Amino acid sequence: MSEKYKLSLTWPPYLKKKKKKKKKKNKKKNKNKKNKNKKNKNKNKTKKKNKKTKKKKKKKKKKKKTKKKKKKKKKKKEMKKREKKKKDKQKNRRKK
Predict the structure, then answer these.
(1) What is the pLDDT of residues 74-87, one digit of tens each?
(2) 17-32 b/e with 16+ CB inside 10 Å = b?
(3) pTM of the predicted model as reported, rounded to 2 decimal places
(4) How far apart are CA 13 and CA 16, in angstroms?
(5) Which of 13, 43, 88, 89 has the smallest set of CB atoms within 10 Å of its CB?
């Protein structure tokens, strides 16, 4: 190995660290990408198998909607409570 090449590997020191970090980051990214692809592949396989279960999935979606409605109802109730509190406070102020 030439002297120049050896130097390029070790100099400047701060760059060397950066390179290492970048390598590590890329490694992680690639790993994540691989896993994602794997998951998607498996998903597609199961999709092909479970064409019958599509109806069940639709039912689940409906449940989610009701959850939203419940949340809305809860929010409305809380708002009403708050309004009532405000009114009561005002009333009390007037009484004083």
Answers:
(1) 888 999 999 999 99
(2) eeeeeeeeeeeeeeee
(3) 0.27
(4) 5
(5) 13
